[in-house]
């Protein structure tokens, strides 16, 4: 059952209080998704919205922002909607599916005790489970990753979303946190739509083996990129991309 978790700068409902605290620190304190050159009314795509912490952060900084927030896990999507209602946020549209290179229905591995780690790439989470067991013991790892469920979730291409919204003239900020499927989200953009995107920030992990491909793709589309190892764990990387002048 979701519980209300209160922080210094916001509050939100979450299935896991510990995970909510981790996400809050990542977004509000470490400001890992901070972009300096956004307009006062940015249009933002949030791929992997989870419980909505990023939307809460961005709307505090840019009250006039318009956000499309994508979250495919049904229970997490429900909490996302609940958090948007809790803060009476306008200009945020939550959509119950994920973004990918092709429109399809796929199996999502959902972790009810650690929903932010739910993934379309479950083989990578086996490595995280083993690391957690090595550091904290098997019982603790099982508590976090146990009870995994296989759920059918809908995926859509970002270009199809753009085509269905003729008022889209730009994407000021594309934020991606999709647990191993980052490259797939980017591959869902047609060549004709790449020019609409001004800034991208995404998280990736060495185990996904896609960091090099992501960097090469972004460079080929005219972005200047910065890649830094994440503060919270070795092997995780934050890639920031912005249009070169």
TrEMBL record:
What superkingdom heads the lineage? Eukaryota
Write one Pfam family the protein is assigned to.
Answer: Methyltransf_21
Task: Extract the Gene3D superfamilies matched here.
Answer: Vaccinia Virus protein VP39
Domain Methyltransferase FkbM as annotated: residue spans: 46-194
Q: Which NCBIfam families match?
A: fkbM_fam
Name this polypeptide is given: Methyltransferase FkbM domain-containing protein
């Amino acid at each position: 059952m979701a519980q209300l978790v209160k922080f210094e700068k916001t509050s939100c409902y979450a299935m896991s209080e510990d995970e909510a605290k981790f996400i809050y620190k990542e977004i509000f304190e470490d400001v890992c998704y901070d972009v300096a050159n956004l307009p006062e009314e940015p249009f933002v795509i949030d791929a992997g919205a989870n419980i909505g912490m990023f939307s809460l952060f961005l709307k505090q900084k840019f009250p006039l922002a318009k956000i499309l927030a994508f979250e495919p896990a049904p229970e997490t999507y429900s909490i996302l909607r609940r958090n948007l209602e809790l803060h009476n946020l306008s200009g945020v549209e939550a959509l119950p599916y994920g973004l990918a290179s092709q429109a399809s229905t796929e199996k999502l591995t959902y972790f009810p005790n650690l929903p932010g780690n739910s993934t379309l790439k479950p083989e990578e989470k086996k490595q995280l489970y083993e690391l957690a067991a090595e550091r904290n013991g098997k019982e603790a790892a099982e508590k976090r990753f146990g009870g995994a469920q296989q759920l059918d979730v809908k995926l859509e291409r970002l270009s199809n979303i753009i085509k269905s919204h003729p008022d889209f003239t730009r994407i000021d900020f594309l934020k991606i946190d999709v647990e191993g499927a980052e490259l797939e989200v980017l591959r869902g953009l047609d060549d004709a739509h790449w020019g609409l995107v001004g800034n991208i920030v995404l998280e990736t992990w060495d185990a996904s083996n896609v960091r090099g491909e992501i960097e090469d793709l972004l460079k080929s589309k005219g972005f200047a990129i910065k890649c830094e190892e994440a503060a919270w764990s070795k092997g995780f990387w934050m890639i920031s991309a912005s249009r070169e002048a």
